[in-house]
Write a structure and sequence with these properties.
The chain is built from 27 helices and 17 strands. The chain starts with 7 loop residues before the first strand and ends with a helix. A five-stranded parallel β-sheet has the order 3-12-11-10-9. It has a five-stranded parallel β-sheet with strand order 4-5-6-7-8, covered by helices on one side. Strands 14-13-15-16-17 form a five-stranded parallel β-sheet, sandwiched between helices. By secondary structure, the protein is α/β, with parallel strands linked by helices. Helix 11 runs parallel beside helix 13 and helix 24 packs parallel to helix 25. It binds succinyl(carbadethia)-coenzyme A. The site of succinyl(carbadethia)-coenzyme A (SCD) has 29 residues, from helix 8, strand 10 and strand 11.
C-alpha cells in the first residue's frame, strides 16, 4: 500500500478551498473547522497540562502540587514502563525501569499518595495508560472514592487508545482482539458512571514521534477513530452517548502551517465521521484535543534552541485551537526533564497566554487562502488514505499484519536520509553545528531507591491485606474475562481489596496470554547518502573476511521506542551487514543466548529509558570479552564516559549523523575482526 501525496507544490497548496466560504464565521458550529467553541480562549484559555511523573508517588505528588501552585491548570500522569506493561515493581523484568520514565504505581495505596492533598473533585486528571488501563483506572476510581469523591464527580481523561500502541508506541500487553474488548469495557463503564470523564484520547502524537508526517499522523488517527466507533457499535454501545467523551491527542512538529491545518482538518473530519455514523449530538461532533510539542524535533546540541522550537510548535497548537497543551522541556534530547527545564516549559505557556494576545482572536488563520487550501489538502489526503486502508482490509487487519507500522517506519527512513543529504536542515544537528553544551542541572532519577521503596511497600501491603478476599476477587476477574463480561467492575473490586496492578494483569494474562507483534524492517538506499569511501571500505572488509559481517541490534528492558533502532538496522543492512533484530522487550540473557549460537561481529543496544548503566553493566559482565558493544539512545554526556569505562566501544546519541555512525562502527570492526 502506498501513501497518497499531499497536494502541495513547494509550499503552495494547490487544492482549491471549495468550502472556505461556508466556514467563515462558523466558530463553534459544525463542522467546527474554525474551533469547537464560539469564543474559544476569550471564554476559557486552553488547559496547561504538563505530562509528568517520576520515581514514586510521593515524589510525583510533590511535583504536581508545585506545578499547580505555580499556575498549571490540569494534571497529566506519566507512568513508568513496568506499570504500563502490568508488572509490579518487584517483578524481575521491572528492575531496571522502576520510576524512570514515569511514576511507579503498584496499588491503590500508591495512587492515594499520588493525589494526596489534591482534590480530585476539582482538578481534572489525565492518565496516559493503555496496556494496563483496567487496574490503573480502578486504582484512580478507588483512590478518589477513599478521598470522598464519587466517580460521577471525576473529570479528566484516560488515554485508552490501544491501536496506536500496536502501531507505534508498544506498551500493549494482550492481543489486539482482547485489548479492543478492554477498550470498550472502559468506554462503556465511563459513560455509565463517569459522565465528566473523557474515556479515550485517540492519539496521533506517537505516530509523528515514530516518524510519520503530520498528514500521515492525522490519517492514521482518524482511521483508528473510525475503527473504534465501528467496534463500539458492534458491541451495542450507544455511540450518541459515548462519542461526547471521546477526545483526541495530536503532536505539534516544526511544519508550522501544516500543523495548524492538521488541527483544523481534524475537527472537520471528526464531525463528518460522526455524520456518517448518524450521530446527531453537536457536542459529540465538537472534536476536543490535547496537543504536545514534538520530542523528536529537539536537538541534543545547543539545547536552549529547543525553547524556540517548542514555542513555535506551541503557537501552532494555539492557532489550531487546541483545548489543552503540553510544552516539552528543552533538555529532553539529553535526559529526563530537569526542574529548571520543566519550569521554562511551563512558563512558555504562561507567556503565550498572558503576554502575546495570540489567543484573543478565534482561528486567526481562517480565511487565508493558503490555510484554507492546506486544510482542504489535509482532508483530501486523509480521505484517500482511508480508502486505501479499507481496500487493504481495514485498520484491524493492517495493525495485526504490522503494515501501518511499516508505513511510519518508511517515513522515518526517508527523514533520516533527507537529514543525511541535507535536504532537511536541522540547526545544530546537520548544519550550524557547535560543540554540545550540556544543560546545567540534569535530573538524576533515583531508580534503585524507588525500586527498594516500592518492593518494601508491596511486601507491607501483602502482609496487611485479606489474602482470601484478594484471591476471590482475582478469580472473579478471570472468570469475567472468560465469560466476556465488562471487566471494569471486577477490577475495581480486586483493587479495592488491595490486589496489585501486576496481580490483576497476571489474572488476565493467565486467561489471554501476553502478545508480541510482528516486526518488519524495510530496506532503504542509505549508502547513496554516505561517503562513497566508507561504503567501499565495508565491502573490502567483508571480502577480506570472506563472509558478510554480522550484527545484532536489540532494544533491552521495557522501553518500546524503536524508531532509532530500526533506522540503524536499515542502515547496516544497506552497508551489506547481516543484521538480526530481536523483538522488543529483550533481556540481557536473550542477547547472550543469541550470541552464543553464532557469535556476532558487534552488538548494538538501543536504550531511551535512562536504564543504560543498569543494562550495560549486566551485558559487559556476561558477554564474551571480544564482542564489541555499541549503545544508542538518550544518554547524558556524563554517563557516556561511564559507559565507555565499563566497556562500551562507542555511544551514539541524537547528534550523530549516519555517516558518523558508519565510520565509527567500521573503525571498531576492523580492530575486532583483526584484519
Ligand atoms: C472549554 N469549555 C468551554 C470553552 N472551553 N465552554 C465554552 N466555551 C469555551 N471556549 C468547557 C468544556 O466544554 C468543558 O466542559 C470544560 O470547559 C473543560 O474544558 P475542556 O476543553 O474539556 O478542557 P480539559 O478539561 O482540559 O480537557 C481537554 C481534553 C481532555 C478534552 C482534550 O481529553 C484532556 O485533557 N486531554 C489531555 C490528554 C493528555 O494529557 N495526554 C497526555 C499524553 P465539560 O466538562 O462540561 O465538557 C502524553 C503522552 O502520551 C506522551 C507521549 C508518550 O509518553 O508516549
Amino acid at each position: 500500500m502506498k501513501a497518497p501525496s499531499l497536494a502541495k507544490i513547494e509550499g503552495v497548496y494547490s487544492v482549491a478551498p471549495e468550502t472556505a466560504d461556508s466556514w467563515r464565521d462558523a466558530h463553534g458550529k459544525a463542522p467546527f473547522v474554525r474551533g469547537p467553541y464560539e469564543k474559544m480562549y476569550q471564554q476559557k484559555p486552553w488547559t496547561i497540562r504538563q505530562y509528568a511523573g517520576f520515581e514514586g508517588a510521593l515524589e510525583t505528588n510533590a511535583f504536581f502540587k508545585r506545578a499547580l501552585s505555580q499556575g498549571q491548570t490540569g494534571l497529566s500522569v506519566a507512568f513508568d514502563l513496568p506499570t504500563h506493561l502490568g508488572f509490579d515493581s518487584d517483578h524481575d523484568l521491572a528492575a531496571a525501569d522502576v520510576g524512570r520514565t514515569g511514576v511507579a504505581i503498584d496499588s491503590v495505596e500508591d495512587m492515594a499518595v499520588l493525589f494526596d492533598g489534591i482534590d480530585l473533585g476539582n482538578v481534572s486528571v489525565s492518565m496516559t495508560m493503555n496496556g494496563a488501563v483496567l487496574p490503573i483506572m480502578a486504582c484512580f476510581i478507588v483512590a478518589a472514592e477513599e478521598q470522598g469523591v464519587a466517580p460521577d464527580k471525576l473529570s479528566g481523561t484516560i488515554q485508552n487508545d490501544i491501536l496506536k500502541e500496536y502501531i507505534a508506541r508498544n506498551t500493549y500487553i494482550h492481543s489486539p482482539d482482547f485489548s479492543m474488548g478492554v477498550v470498550s469495557d472502559v468506554v462503556a463503564y465511563c459513560s455509565a458512571h463517569m459522565p465528566r470523564f473523557n474515556s479515550m484520547s485517540i492519539s496521533g502524537y506517537h505516530f509523528q514521534e515514530a516518524g510519520a508526517s503530520p498528514e500521515l499522523e492525522l490519517a492514521l488517527t482518524m482511521a483508528n477513530a473510525r475503527a473504534y466507533l465501528t467496534h463500539f457499535q458492534q458491541q451495542g454501545i450507544d455511540l450518541e452517548f459515548v462519542a461526547k467523551r471521546l477526545s483526541f491527542f495530536f503532536g505539534l512538529g516544526m511544519s508550522f502551517y501544516k500543523e495548524v491545518a492538521k488541527l483544523r482538518a481534524a475537527r472537520f473530519l471528526w464531525s463528518e465521521l460522526l455524520d456518517e455514523f448518524s450521530i446527531r449530538s453537536e457536542n459529540a461532533k465538537r472534536l476536543k484535543m490535547h496537543c504536545q510539542t514534538s520530542g523528536v524535533s529537539l536537538t541534543e546540541s545547543s539545547p536552549l534552541n529547543n525553547i524556540v522550537r517548542t514555542t513555535i510548535e506551541a503557537m501552532a497548537g494555539v492557532f489550531g485551537g487546541t483545548q489543552s497543551l503540553h510544552t516539552n522541556s528543552y533538555d529532553e534530547a539529553i535526559s529526563l526533564p530537569s526542574d529548571q527545564a520543566s519550569k521554562v516549559a511551563l512558563e512558555t505557556q504562561f507567556i503565550l497566554q498572558h503576554e502575546t494576545g495570540i489567543g484573543d482572536v478565534v482561528d486567526p488563520w481562517g480565511g487565508s487562502y493558503m490555510m484554507e487550501s492546506a486544510t482542504q489538502s489535509m482532508i483530501e489526503y486523509v480521505r484517500t488514505m482511508q480508502k486505501n486502508i479499507e481496500t487493504e482490509g481495514g485498520v484491524l487487519a493492517l495493525v495485526a499484519s504490522g503494515q501501518l507500522t511499516t508505513f511510519i517506519h518508511r517515513q522515518a527512513l526517508q527523514t533520516a536520509m533527507d537529514e543525511e543529504a541535507l535536504n532537511k536542515k536541522i540547526v545544530g544537528k546537520n548544519c550550524y553545528q557547535s560543540p554540545t553544551s550540556s544543560p546545567q542541572h540534569q535530573r538524576v532519577i533515583a531508580s534503585d531507591k524507588t525500586l527498594l521503596q516500592q518492593s518494601k511497600k508491596l511486601a507491607q501491603l501483602k502482609l496487611k491485606r485479606d489474602d482470601g478476599a484478594v484471591k476471590r476477587a482475582l478469580q472473579a476477574l478471570q472468570a469475567a474475562a472468560r465469560s466476556k463480561q465488562n471487566l471494569m467492575p471486577f477490577t475495581i473490586d480486586a483493587i479495592r481489596v488491595r490486589a496489585t496492578v501486576g496481580e490483576c494483569i497476571k489474572a488476565l494474562t493467565d486467561e489471554a496470554s501476553r502478545y508480541l507483534k510482528p516486526e518488519y524492517i524495510e530496506s532503504a538506499p542509505f549508502c547513496t547518502h554516505l561517503d562513497a569511501d566508507i561504503v567501499k571500505r565495508y565491502q573490502t572488509l567483508s571480502s577480506q573476511l570472506d563472509r558478510p559481517l554480522r550484527f545484532l541490534i536489540a532494544k533491552v528492558g521495557l522501553d518500546g521506542h524503536d524508531r532509532g533502532a530500526k533506522v540503524i538496522v536499515s542502515l547496516l543492512r544497506d552497508l551489506g551487514i547481516e543484521v538480526d533484530y530481536l523483538p522488543i522487550f529483550a533481556s540481557i540473557d536473550d542477547i547472550i543466548q543469541q550470541d552464543a549460537m553464532c557469535p556476532y561481529d558487534g552488538i548494538g543496544l538501543s536504550i531511551l529509558s535512562g536504564a543504560h548503566i543498569h543494562f550495560i553493566t549486566q551485558i559487559t559482565q556476561k558477554i564474551r570479552t571480544d564482542c564489541p558493544i555499541f549503545v544508542g539512545g538518550v544518554i547524558p554526556t556524563s554517563d557516556k564516559n561511564t559507559l565507555e569505562k565499563i566497556g562500551v566501544e562507542v555511544v551514539f546519541t541524537a547528534k550523530h549523523s549516519l555517516n558518523d555512525i558508519a565510520i565509527s562502527l567500521y573503525d571498531t570492526l576492523v580492530v575486532a575482526t583483526k584484519i
